[in-house]
Amino acid sequence: MTTSLSTAFSVAAFIIVTLSVFCEKPAHAFLVKSPRACNYNYRHGTCTRVSNDDGCINNACNPTRRNFAAACLSGIITLLPIVTTNKAASALTPDQASQSYDTYAETYDKLDGGSIATSLGIDEARSKLLGMAKGNVLEIGVGTGLNLASYRFGEGGVTSLTLVDISDGMLSQAEARIQKMNIDKSIPIQFVKADATSELVNIFGENKFDSVVDTFSLCVMGNEGAKKCIEEMAGVIKPSGKILLVENTRSSNPLLGSYQDMTASSAANLGGKGCVYNQNVGEMIDKSKGMRLETEESFAAGLFRSFVCTKS
Fold first, then answer.
1. Would you say the pTM of this structure is higher than 0.70?
2. DSSP strand E in the chain: where?
3. Which residue has the higher pLDDT, 49 or 306?
């Protein structure tokens, strides 16, 4: 839920991480291409990063490490028939999600996050986006509360916080985390069990929150559930408010995108905690009722993206 990068990245993430380990570089250095990243030459150990005219990064490893990485990729390609399927990925129902995440709650932090998440730039994306949250804030799919440390509490930041999840177990873990944090007692914090695909407006009313936050929950809801959730978020945000999202998305890299399409169902069912990780969230926002996309930022070749939206 909160990070729900989960194991659904599976082999795609392993490819990236393998290359980063054997080139002694962060994984996102191999995927994120931007002019800012190409304005210099960089040498570290046996790897060289060289800028070129088209704004892309060329990375060269020594032959031994390059050959090892190639061997890993070959092995993964051999395994593709085992993990690929033509069957469309299906999300968990609300009841299934509630039961499933109750089971994961106590060990969730070990399953998601960690060094791989850091290498892919997730911590950076989380901190950057959640630093924008202010006023009366709603976070859906709070999970164990992995986002809580990224909020700025107090004047100019979060002045009240409502945390929603469909799992009692997750809410218990988030509450335990809150108890260990040094948050001003004057800031009201409430925990609400709810289905974010259908109950937000009914529970909280329209135009209620200054900021609405979600990180990595839409994939668990499936495409139809995600569309409904987007409209629920649009309903509860104030006209002047911001909707802040970090989500799993279909990669902008053609090879990784095709891989995600082939493995989405297997990844969701085999360790992905129901996460359909090849959604086109930007398109969902564009076609939604009541929400307008302001900015979008891509990380790790578009394996996940952050979105800043407003009420339309």
1. yes
2. 42-44, 47-51, 57-60, 135-140, 158-165, 189-193, 209-215, 237-248, 291-299, 304-311
3. 306
